[in-house]
Specification:
Elements: E1 2-8, H1 16-24, E2 29-34, H2 43-51, E3 57-60, H3 70-82, E4 86-89, E5 94-95, H4 99-132, H5 145-157, H6 162-169, H7 173-185
Helix pairs in contact: 5-6
Amino acid sequence: MLVGYARVSTLDQSLNLQFDALKEVGCEKVFTEKVSGAKADRPELNKALEFIRSGDTLVVWKLDRLGRSIRQLIDTVNILNERGIGLRSLKESIDTTTSSGKLIFHIFCALAEFERDVIRERTHAGLAAARARGRKGGRKKAITPDKFKMAFDLYQKKELSVDKICENLGINRRTFYNYLAEHQKK
């Protein structure tokens, strides 16, 4: 039996393209959901995995519909293989019920992992080059040390309430108290 799974990331996206393609290849049952692939909890995918039996094939329109990361995809395919269930991706023309399909799937996974590693290396090299030029990464401080000193003086003199001090600095109370705690550690 061919069992389909279709997913879109946002509520305003349509499942029609995927659903029609899955029905066209002969999926007898199609599970659909509108949820981000980054979310670990995908109820309809879980239902599809509970429904599908040994000898069946799970069909997706595209591999990225099944998992957001290579690790997710490999884990899912391994679970399917252990249960005797095949995976077929329409756009990538991958069918793990065949030996050539398994090979192509693993090559795709290896290439994607290689690409991720290259991106990580470039990012680290770029950050190192920026640090060598004196640039620091991360979020900018909410207030300058001079502004904090002024706010701290007002706080100690109790001339203004913390709310007024924060309003003048354009920060919230939590930020002020974080700076205060940091200052008191020194």
